[in-house]
Amino acid sequence: MATCATCDETVDTATAAHKVEYQGTVYYFCCGHCQAAFEQEPARYTTEG
Ligand SMILES: [Zn+2]
Ligand SMILES: [Zn+2]
What we know:
Elements: E1 2-3, E2 10-11, E3 18-22, E4 25-29, H1 32-40, H2 42-45
Antiparallel strand pairs: 1-2, 3-4
The chain binds zinc ion (2 copies).
Residues 7, 30-31, 33-34 line the site of one zinc ion.
């Protein structure tokens, strides 16, 4: 299991239909809307520290 990178909803990685590889890391999303939000502004959801 993973969490949606946008909204922290639980995502089953085995059946996840929405995922994006960004800077070598795969991010999972609960729905296409969350994926679209991530793709528009990935830095907002991947800030380190
Ligand atoms: Zn989500
Ligand atoms: Zn969603």
